[in-house]
TrEMBL record:
It comes from Pleurodeles waltl. Gene3D superfamilies: 1.20.5.340, L1 transposable element, RRM domain. Transmembrane segments: none annotated. InterPro entries: Transposase_22 (IPR004244). PANTHER family: L1 TRANSPOSABLE ELEMENT-RELATED (PTHR11505). This is L1 transposable element RRM domain-containing protein.
């Protein structure tokens, strides 16, 4: 009907306003899906924080479990270390006991060594003294080398009493007399072997000295086709020392030195008007070494001859050296050194 407002269509601007108002009135709630730059809703934030907390707690529990396992392993290691330390302490205690025992034993050994050292000095002195006494007991002896076997017959003393004046061309007044005379060593049936030496002990010392001096000056004697040598009779130790000295004579001659063997184991050496005595062959060898770089005249015949002087008196060491060896053993010297004999 004309004039009615209900059937009128909205047109123009009013229609657009009506549509916009309806759209506002009937719009749906905002979707939960947001863009990348949209802030999360409170529900989403709560859900995410709970999840993160659960994950963090799980990690913490895992770490605590790992730490507890490590602590358990460390406890086991500490227990084993404690046992090892206890065993080491017991071993150390045993070692300390053994070391204490060893210290006591070392102390006793040192005391024994001191005692043995003095005993060695005693033995050295006794050996020197014994050798000296043995040489002195042989001062009246002479040794004849090279006399054929069985040449003496049945009476050795009568044979020597007739042969020695002829060999030495000496007039003995009173005549030669012997205490003993015999060969040294077992009998030899084979005459081709070297004859055994003859040891003769004369009754008078001056006769033995005359025979030895003549033998050194005149050299070897002869009986038929055999060379006879007459020497002094010494102990085994003295003979060894004399052999060592005599072996050094070629070197003395090469160096052009005068020399002589005395006492009976003292080598007298003169070089450039300087004389020196040697009682040990090793000392003489060291003396030679000092002349290795020196040029000496070895062509002078006057300086390369043996003096031929030799003392037939017994004694391995001279009086001064025997006195020195004896002073080693005196209680006064031991007490002065601050030691006591065990």
């Amino acid at each position: 009907m004309p004039g009615s407002k209900t059937n009128q269509k909205p047109t123009g601007k009013s229609a657009r306003q009506l549509l916009f108002s309806e759209a506002l009135h009937h719009r749906r709630p905002t979707s939960t899906i947001t863009g990348p730059h949209s802030p999360p809703s409170p529900t989403q934030s709560t859900a995410m924080s709970d999840k993160e907390q659960s994950i963090t707690m799980e990690k913490i529990l895992q770490e605590i479990t790992a730490v507890s396992r490590r602590i358990e392993g460390m406890d086991a290691s500490l227990s084993s270390l404690t046992l090892e330390i206890k065993s080491m302490r017991s071993d150390i205690a045993g070692f300390q006991t053994r070391v204490t025992g060893l210290e006591h034993r070392m102390g006793s050994l040192e005391t024994q060594m001191t005692t043995y050292r003095y005993r060695d000095q005693d033995l050295l002195y006794l050996r020197i003294k014994l050798t000296d006494l043995e040489d002195r007991s042989r001062r009246d002896n002479i040794c004849l080398l090279g006399i054929p076997e069985h040449e003496e017959g049945t009476d050795m003393q009568a044979f020597l009493g007739s042969v020695l004046p002829k060999l030495t061309s000496l007039d003995f007044d009173p005549p030669l007399e012997f205490q003993r005379a015999h060969r040294v060593g077992p009998k030899r049936s084979d005459t081709s072997l070297r004859p055994r030496p003859i040891i003769a002990c004369l009754l008078r010392h001056n006769h033995a000295r005359q025979i030895l001096q003549t033998a050194r000056k005149q050299g070897p004697f002869r009986i038929g086709q055999h060379d006879i040598r007459i020497t002094a009779d010494y102990s085994k130790d003295t003979n060894e020392r004399r052999k060592a000295f005599l072996a050094l004579r070629p070197r003395l001659r090469q160096l052009g030195m005068k020399f002589g063997l005395f006492d009976p184991t003292r080598m007298w050496v003169t070089n450039n008007s300087i004389s020196k005595d040697f009682y040990n062959p090793d000392e003489l060898s060291l003396f030679f070494d000092s002349f290795q770089h020196q040029h000496m005249d070895s062509t002078n015949p006057d300086c390369s001859q043996d003096t031929g002087r030799e003392n037939e008196g017994g004694g391995l060491y001279p009086r001064a050296q025997r006195k020195k060896a004896r002073s080693i053993m005196t209680p006064t010297s031991i007490k002065g050194a601050g030691m006591q004999r065990g």
